């Protein structure tokens, strides 16, 4: 048992973090460079867990989840999640967007320049063809291009049994990243913004909001690590642990997203500042591989 | 990162499980400290004789010198076997002993540590005072140096198990006129000394587990000072580190078991059909899983770096609040049967009421949030 990242994982993480800071600053989240996706592919980040035979890195879900939390902290393109799942479980090697089936319409997320998109149909993960000639707008998460298509496009199920859990795990990692981002933005601001002749972080009313943000992140991160290891080890309770990770990460992202805006005061309400970005990302991720109460209550758990 | 245990560790787990299965007492531990003291001592002695006390304590002082992972496995199995709460041995085993291991002289260690492990010596903690709870540096109880003795005057409060204790980890001001963190000393006080008066205090759950202690010219040999005269703040911080750091391992499994029982009960009485209750229970199950993961992560950190990460306060805060949510759910599922509670009953209501201590004792939830904000996030110090 060892739930801390190994030296290699640490090194991968540091390299990713350095790269993200330069290539994906939060300030530019709404207008990413046109060739960002090519850069992500060149870095190998779309195929961390994909088999080496398919041009992937063939690493464990644990490493991928760690790195995805870091990518999520920089509000990386949402299609990284779907592309990683598709590349792990099919022989499709290019970008894959995400689909969300809703009442009346199917929403396509970040599927520009993608031939297919990944979604869930009748409880199974499937890929769908992306029709040509779509009109693209922007989702509530302004980093995400959005288009609508008519209900039930053609699709083919992914047979790999772990694909649904893989999707949920990576969405959890992205949500944790959003929660981390909100915590860091709030803590950084609390150190520099002054009122009553002191940094606002001196006041416990603010300090304790930030402390609670840190607790939510620590809880969600621990469970993410455990869930990723359970999925790698193929334990019988892996589905429960992945669902628990998603649930805690979603809640952390949403609660931290809200708290971050409060800590920023008036400027937190402005479109121009960035405090709303992790909150909006949190709302979007809440619809991707969501967890219901019964997902967590029904499975019988093995005694640890 | 991996979650498996080695075959040696799995074997150790089997041994723990087998022994506990055969030896956990069938009778319930009495709830009140006075009634429970014989039970607590006898159970600790049984653990010691079978080699289960001080699993990762040094062999020289009666421990087994095994790994921290084995200690964790033991505590997990202990909780799973519904073994009795450590009770009056809590202070000695969980923080008095570890503080001595880290700071005491060889003589002090050789005398006290085996007695703690054998359940022969009950310890209590004399930190808080009527005017100094959260503000530990505000203590006023004095120890005047006279020859080779300290003469102690003042009062301590909320001292758990004071009225059944033999020894006390006592923090006093030994430098006249000193203030705040300076001039304090951490001393071993014999609770049977002349000049000590103990007034038990009843809790909202009915038990008299803690007390106020008065010191009237109590004489303590200078040889009982731990870590050097005037170094009491440093030694106290190490005590609090142990106090805040160890309890959660057993709680984590206890919480997991309780949540499973609550889910069963909510299904049986139909309350699971209430969406809010189902949602709260689902959330608790996820949180209990995360708590285990957090504990493992912290242990991994200790093994890797030799010390727990700055997230110990996170675990402490999260565990205490999660435990309280679980206890609250248990009384919610009871419905109006809750109002039948009368002092002294050993049931969910008593646990719920006792559970208020979790976010007060050993540093309140507010103090933990300060620590997290300042040490983990680097926010400016408020105090
Ligand atoms: C069951 C139980 C057992 C205990 N056992 C022991 C024991 O064995 N030995 C021992 O020495 N002590 C013991 N204690 C005492 C415990 O450590 C103190 O109760 C605790 O540190 C709080 O101090 P206080 O009670 O004086 O509350 P106060 O410090 O008066 O706190 C009152 C309220 O004010 C808040 N507060 C205080 N200061 C601040 C601040 N700076 N910022 C924000 N909020 C603040 C607190 O969080 C709390 O909500 C025990 C307590 C309990 C409940």
From TrEMBL, chain A:
Signal sequence segment: none
Residues of the Acyl-CoA dehydrogenase/oxidase N-terminal domain: 6-83
KW Flavoprotein (keyword) present: yes
Transmembrane segments: none
InterPro entries: AcylCo_DH-like_C, AcylCo_DH/oxidase_C, AcylCoA_DH/ox_N, AcylCoA_DH/ox_N_sf, AcylCoA_DH/oxidase_NM_dom_sf
Key words, A-Z: FAD, Flavoprotein, Oxidoreductase
Domain Acyl-CoA dehydrogenase/oxidase C-terminal: 169-273
Domain of life assignment: Bacteria
A Pfam family recorded for this sequence: Acyl-CoA_dh_N
Entry's Gene Ontology molecular function annotations: acyl-CoA dehydrogenase activity; flavin adenine dinucleotide binding
Coiled coil: none
Cofactor: FAD
Protein family (similarity comment): Belongs to the acyl-CoA dehydrogenase family.
Name recorded for this polypeptide: Acyl-CoA dehydrogenase
Species, as recorded: Sphingomonas lacunae
Source taxonomy: Bacteria, Pseudomonadati, Pseudomonadota, Alphaproteobacteria, Sphingomonadales
TrEMBL record, chain B:
Superkingdom of the organism of origin: Bacteria
Annotated ranges, domain Acyl-CoA dehydrogenase/oxidase C-terminal: 230-377
UniProtKB keywords: FAD, Flavoprotein, Oxidoreductase
Domain Acyl-CoA dehydrogenase/oxidase N-terminal intervals: 7-120
Known cofactor(s): FAD
GO CC, alphabetical: plasma membrane
Gene Ontology molecular functions: flavin adenine dinucleotide binding; oxidoreductase activity, acting on the CH-CH group of donors
Start and end residues of each Acyl-CoA oxidase/dehydrogenase middle domain: 124-217
Pfam families per UniProt: Acyl-CoA_dh_1, Acyl-CoA_dh_M, Acyl-CoA_dh_N
TM stretches of this protein: none
InterPro entries, per the entry: Acyl-CoA_Oxase/DH_mid-dom (IPR006091), Acyl-CoA_Oxase/DH_mid-dom_sf (IPR046373), AcylCo_DH-like_C (IPR036250), AcylCo_DH/oxidase_C (IPR009075), AcylCoA_DH/ox_N (IPR013786), AcylCoA_DH/ox_N_sf (IPR037069), AcylCoA_DH/oxidase_NM_dom_sf (IPR009100), Mycobact_Acyl-CoA_DH (IPR052161)
Family the UniProt entry places it in: Belongs to the acyl-CoA dehydrogenase family.
PANTHER family from the UniProt entry: ACYL-COA DEHYDROGENASE (PTHR43292), ACYL-COA DEHYDROGENASE FADE34 (PTHR43292:SF4)
Identification of the protein by name: Acyl-CoA dehydrogenase
